[in-house]
Fold this protein.
Amino acid sequence: MKNYFLKAVILTAVLLCTNNLNAQKVFKIGDEFDSDIKVTKSYQKFKKTASKNSEKELVYKKEFYSKNSSYIKIHFKDFDLAPGDYVEIIGDKTKESIIYGGQGKIVDNNMTMISDFWSKVLLDDKVVVKLYSSGKANSHNGFEINKVAYGYSEEKIAKELARQERTTCSNNDKERIACYQGTEMYEKAKAVCKLIIGGSSLCTGWLLGEEGHLMTNNHCIGSVSDAQNTDFIFNYQSAGCSGYTDAQSNVVASSSTFIKTNSTLDYTLVKLPVNPTNTYGFLSLSSVVPSKGDRIYIPQHPGGRKKEISVKSDMDPTPGGFSRVYESTSGPFKQVKYYADTEGGSSGSPVLDYNSNLVIAIHNTGICPNGSHGRSDSLIASIGSDMPAKGVDNNGDGDNPPGGSCSNTVSSFPYTQSFENTIGNWVQSTSDDFNWTTRSGATQSENTGPAYADNGSYYLYMESSSPNYSNKSAIITSPCFDLNQVNNASLTFKYHMYGNSSMGNLKVEVSIDKGTNWTNVWQKSGNQGNSWQTANINLDSYVGKDVQIRFNGVTGTTWQGDMAIDKVSVSADSNGGGSSSVSLEIVFDNFSYETSWEIRDGSNTIVASGDNYVNQAKDSKITVNKTLPNGCYDLVFKDSFGDGMCCSYGSGSYTLRNSSGTILASGGQFGSTETKSFCIGTNYPESAVEVFTPTSVVINDLMLHPNPSSSVLNIVIPERELSGSYKIVNLTGAVIKKGSLSKSISVEGIKAGFYVLEVQTTKHTYSKKFIKIDKK
């Protein structure tokens, strides 16, 4: 018995050692250099000059630079500033600004501060650290800078990877995530982010559940300190499948709350101080144990590069060569191994089942076949009561909305639905936040939503009043449309989006696999005016298939965001041929050269346009006549300064009419751009729209909107040019943020409360109080 027990212990030790030897280690993407900068005595001895008694003065300034470095991070020690004093770190190229005050870095929603910390990452090769003080340090000690980290260039990272043990299986079959746009794999991969831990370590992480939790490996984030000093970078990916254009990355957080860890399963669960799931979605763990041969995919940040995905593998002998599970073991050491390419930096990536889009494991092991010690069933058992909401899919069948079967199929066209106090054969989703609702007459909230239906007595709408605003979604799915016996197909519907400029967005998505994957085919965002608009979408590319259509609406940040749809029609006819004439009348404001316009067809191709109106005088008028093929279009007007054509600097406007004089679109009072939809031809509904009536605006002071604000302040001043500087000051006089003046200023990251915005131009000084509120 003793010998048996001893053998079991030895076997366990061997297995654990094997696990640790094969596990991928944290990948290094930068160098950390010791520093010996102490800003203590100079800070404590500083006294303000009498002439600058009302301002903070610059006490200390230090530049950090490493040519071609991909990022810079500063490590502070014993950070301790008097109330109102602050340190600002500014990127030389990006101009991004980070501010720290008090006892240092805030690391959670409880405003907990730590005095020894790594700064938020700045994606720049040069930064300047500045200390501003009121000269009343008293017993506060200042700070030390004891480390500086410089990120490697892409070339150096490639060399580091080349020196490591190979973790790709034969050829490297990973692809840019952009190559899979329009698929569910692309949508799920949005929840995956790049992690920079401390000053120089790299891993991959992903959002688990809908509450803002994030998973990665224990060997990536293994302690509370690691969690408090990690940058979480989302949307770091190439915009296209080829070429060099990058999408803008988003550092969502530079700290997190440590929730749970397990070194054997090699996972750590943290919670971000903000919940980004409304923007990037989330993933759920599968309750179904994976089996050999199951097809998988792995979105990841190998080597810290822009997001890639492992979908294919030349190790798979089946046609196409897909990434698949090689082995799923039983017993006390549950593992899953797979032929799917990874590299250093891929540690912590989710391994997803191709059919359910659920996470079957958290990746941590290199040396092909790659694998994981953290299989989903083991993770579920270990996380237990700490599991976030929707962190597990108990059915093992994914979180796709209902309506995914074609038991209800339409094969006779044209099909119409006007939602006359019923949703008919459409289906409400159960994976969204609230439902679409039928309504007759005006919506409940003033200055938002339609006053009446476009067709019949009822329409379908999203009520955005509390608790539905702040990026809440409502999804409704059509029956299946059998397009196998038709030659042409199109979708036409009416939509109404009237309210606040940040009212949210409405998307039309199409599925050809019974709701498993959805492709976005149309989208509108923001206020589209107080009138019903027409959308026409060409579905010819779906001819020969069974398709489903869904309306996916997401509310904005205020209650003024009621969206509505009506008169939905799916037609199997062609566009009817023929053409019609339209006339566009433009009245210019004081700055005609800022105005341009486009007419775009259903495929978003520009079919008519105009710009370069340099010689047009104030209030001058021109008429442009065009002949267009019958169909539906978008008229897009733009203003390069961002204040529209009316009404601060003149009374410009535009009016589009058909050949009989009916107004198809009109406007003029907007920001940078305004889009109005219209249709022409006997086969398309032509209807008069609400005629644009200018609303006079007299500017004699600093104007801010929205106020209160949760994200951005839009600025208008009497002067034509927005040039100068601004600063945001709290009620204690501390400067929270400052920078060059622009038409909009972000207030995200600022604590909720009362503040003063001070604007300084070459001609005048303006100030106005505003309220910062948290997003709901």
